[in-house]
Amino acid sequence: MNTQRTAWLFLTPALLVLALFFLIPVLAAFALSLTDFDLYALADLRNLRFVALGNYWELLHRPLFWSALGHTLYFVVIGVPLSMVVSLGAAMLLNSPLARMKPLFRTALFAPVVTTVVAVAVIWRYLFNTKYGLANYSLGLIGISPVDWLGDPRWAMPTIILFAVWKNFGYNMIIFLAGLQAIPADLYEAARIDGASPWRQFRHITLPMLAPTMLMVSILTVSGYFQLFAEPFVMTEGGPLQSTVSVLYLMYEEGFKWWNLGSASAVAFLLFLIMFAVTAVMLRASRQRGEA
Amino acid sequence: MTLGAACSSRTDDARTLTFWTIGREGEAVAKLIPDFEKEHPGLHVKVQQLPLTAAHQKLLTAIAGSSTPDLSQLGNTWIPELAALDALEPLQSRVDASKTIDASDYFANIWTTNRIGGQLYGVPWYVDTRLLFYRRDLLAKAGFDAPPRDWAQWRAMLAALSQPERGAWGILLPTNEFEQLLVLALQQDEPLLRDDNRYGNFRSEGFRRALTFYVDTFRQRQAPAITNVEAGNPWTEFGRGVYAFYLSGPWNIGEFRKRLPASQQDDWDTAPLPGPHGPGASNAGGSSLVIFRTSPHKDEAWQLIEFLSRPQVQQRLYDLLGDMPPRRSSWEGEALRNDPKARAFREQLERVKPTPPIPEWERIVTEMQLVAAQAAHGDLSIDEAAAEIDRRADRILEKRRWLMEHGRVAP
């Protein structure tokens, strides 16, 4: 029997499933983004208008889209490095030969990842309450006047970044931990014999050996953080003054709150293009660094 | 999950009515239903509760997927939207034939909110209008022996009672709720939208007057510019004297009775809203009962609506939840007639105004509040804010104008 035909035979079920559940919905969403599908169209399809790239054009002229994009980029640019540093730090602490009760700490640090975001958001909203929160109480002890964490447009986003980093670092920590454990111990031993300080060991052994893990983690984190939605949804509902509206939050409001599915699909495709471009740039940069 | 269940239960049991409720009403209705089932042997009512935050989405999803219930409770500002989707059964002929439901017994403008394009789509179930909760003792201490009757008096009281430096504010106006500014705008002579609801009318003299009053309250530091997320627990703070006024709805009568100590129960009261010149209007909110067009049990669903519209049943609903009845005769019951705190609502209900009956309204009013909050924070002037709200409203209404030009939707 023809081997190529056999290969296709085995591939067909998977390809059919991919086409049915991935390709067709994506194409349908793209088609939707070229129309002004809304409540009226839901009632009667004759009320549907083909608007070509009109939804995209209008979005690019909407200040809210740009501010949502700005908030999302702010979240990515501050949140991703912060999250990486915290998770790498935690992973190194857990990996240290001096660490005691490793399973306990591993579980404790991973716990926020598996807890539902709504439940922890309730606790965080209490911690960051302006009048009664622990955060302001502690600041008060060292003489700093209270900060309106979630109510001040300047502070709401930093608070959400803190929340998201705390919520998500455990996931990357586990990946980093696996990466750290894969570094052969004799490399460190040789460096120590040569008299390398812990910092030099970190710079010249840990970081280079972790580079592939680092790239994967950063791409996963960047694409995850671009899809910021649940945190502002449960913490601030996009407020105050829409200062925490992210691109995905805008899409949710357009699509599911106001039922403007055409414009919501356009938001989704714009976000996809942006994420695609950013990931491509990251991959290329890392490849160049690898060749250099 | 609920949608799937609703769908299957309807087909496999011909004598089961599926009734969707939104928010707290579900639990109370479950206590009223046994009497209805006793009167109608063999008929079973399945009450399903939707959380308020998800209800709108669930209703639209159900319509898109043709899995609507037989009847539902529906916020009367949502009726235009579902009527535009052609999801609701017209009810005028049933009302005409009914012995229980008498349209003239209902508060006129509440009834009006159920009429879209000349058709009646719902029967009001309970009403919800905003008015003032106030601290009588604080007002007395400041030398006022009665709540305000007009804006000038109100402003004077707010000024006298606000001392932000010691954490005392005249009033709580959460900046993410649109109802407070909306009721001030409804008190004006100008409509909120113009030309058969084709364009926003927010640059009108009246709306700018309302917006100025609203924004001044923040600029003169008589209300904190916070959202209800940060306001957290307004009831205890009201009790502690952080706010002297609270512009809110009837459910708070129950909340204040429950949350404030017995010794403070004489300190607070309710008052109709002051208007620009004397007692003013407020919004005609609340929930209605509707039947879905696809229901195979419309007659039975109507029987349930008639049952829930009886004055005695509405009085029981009030006892259970504090939901205020939309019929004048229901207000004759013991509990409501003798309740001094409900009296202001009874008075206000004769002076309520409906909002424009179009599906886009909720979105417009949300944008109105977003812009108004920016003005309250001092980012926009009154004229800039009014022009911006108009611009956003006109953009939202673009599709409606197109449909009207093509005769697809009645003005």
Description:
Chain A: It is found in: Cell membrane. Chain A: Keywords: Cell membrane, Membrane, Transmembrane, Transmembrane helix, Transport. Chain A: Residues 69-282 form the ABC transmembrane type-1 domain. Chain A: This is Sugar ABC transporter permease. Chain A: The chain crosses the membrane at residues 73-95, 107-127, 169-188, 209-230, 258-283. The complex is a heterodimer of chains A (292) and B (411). Chain A has helices at residues 3-33, 39-43, 54-60, 63-95, 102-114, 117-127, 134-141, 153-181, 185-193, 198-226, 230-235, 247-257, 261-291. By secondary structure, chain A is an all-alpha fold. Chain A has a single domain (26-116, 155-291), classed as MetI-like fold. Chain A is globular, with a radius of gyration of 24 Å. The two termini of chain A are 47 Å apart. By secondary structure, chain B is α/β, with parallel strands linked by helices. Chain B is built from 20 helices and 17 strands. Chain B has a 5-stranded mixed beta sheet with strand order 2-1-3-16-6, sandwiched between helices. The model of chain B is unreliable at 1-12 (pLDDT under 50). Chain A binds chain B through residues 36, 38-40, 42-44, 46-47, 49, 125, 129-132, 148, 150-151, 153, 236-237, 239-242, 256-259, and chain B through 56-57, 60, 63-64, 81, 84-86, 175-176, 226-227, 229-230, 232, 359, 363, 370, 373-374, 377, 379, 399, 402-403, 408-409.
Number of helical elements of chain B: 20
Q: Give a count of the beta strands of chain B, DSSP E runs of length 2 or more.
A: 17
Name the chain pair whose interface involves the most residues. Answer: A-B, 29 and 28 residues
Our Rg estimate of chain A from Cα atoms comes to: 24 Å
Q: Roughly what is the average pLDDT of chain B, rounded to an integer?
A: 91
N-to-C span of chain A: 47 Å
- Counting H and I runs of at least 4 residues, what is the number of helices of chain A? 13
The strand order across the widest sheet of chain B is 2-1-3-16-6
Poorly predicted regions of chain B = 1-12
Silhouette of chain B = globular
User: What is the overall shape of chain A?
Assistant: globular
Top-tier CATH class of chain A: Mainly Alpha
Oligomer: heterodimer
How much helix is in the residues of chain A?
A: over 70%
Main β-sheet of chain B: number of strands, strand sense, barrel status? 5 strands, mixed
Number of strands of chain A: 0
Report, as a whole number of angstroms, the end-to-end distance of chain B.
38 Å
Order of helical and strand elements of chain A: HHHHHHHHHHHHH
| Helix content class of chain B | 40-55%
